[in-house]
Backbone:
């Protein structure tokens, strides 16, 4: 069981505490009565997707003895036009940097995360189509 | 379009940057090669759900001229047993504190968030059954 607690501070400012003991601030934009003093709740879903798949890919590439030097993940989410404006499509791009990376190993690691392991992806894809891509940047 | 970037730092440690300019740290538990130096990605989904519905409820109750003094949201998520271990059920409990709060107004605010406005709820319920409840604590 995963747990969290969220407490209202003031205005649209909320404090989120995770069951594992970490804290973040959320806030709305000025259009919605906030002061942009923290993340939007919908942004957290995209960041969770990036973190979850990133952890999979790093651990798979390490098991495959790949010399990984960097991983950047760009995520974009499109919402439905009408309320409740759920995510309908999410694009996730992995930029994987390393030395003599095998394209096959990278492709497989991305696929294993997307198709088999990533819990956040599996949760979000109940609502949003998730499109992934990757780029390899080999360094000398 | 909502955007985010996630960067690998080291081990299972990742930095998430939201398109609105905020940053958080994610990490895995020691069982998965991490050091528990930040949130788990799956926790972010629950916190996002709490923040999203909390913002709705606060703004609806303010419009209804309710004297709201506190809001705490407890969230628990159950995962599937097998990989990818998506969320299958999420319980969210709203503890709403105020002065002479109308039970009808609170009930309606919770319902409006859950059924009509909350984008995170609408996204997660593609995968997880979401069960909500609320408690009112009236203060003198």
Residues:
């Amino acid at each position: 069981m995963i747990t969290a607690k969220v407490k209202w501070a003031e205005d649209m400012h909320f404090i989120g505490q995770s069951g594992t003991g970490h804290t973040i601030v959320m806030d709305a934009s000025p259009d919605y009565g906030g002061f942009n003093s923290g993340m939007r709740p919908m942004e957290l879903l995209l960041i969770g997707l990036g973190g979850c798949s990133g952890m999979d890919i790093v651990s798979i590439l390490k098991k495959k003895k790949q010399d990984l030097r960097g991983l950047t993940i760009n995520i974009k989410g499109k919402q439905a036009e009408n309320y409740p404006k759920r995510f309908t499509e999410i694009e996730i791009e992995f930029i994987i940097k390393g030395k003599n990376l095998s394209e096959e190993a990278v492709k497989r690691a991305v696929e294993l995360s997307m198709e088999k392991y990533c819990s956040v992806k599996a949760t979000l894809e109940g609502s949003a189509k998730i499109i992934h891509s990757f780029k390899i940047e080999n360094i000398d």
Summary: The first helix of chain A runs from residue 41 to 63. Chain A is about 30% helix and 40% strand. The longest strand of chain A covers residues 67-79.
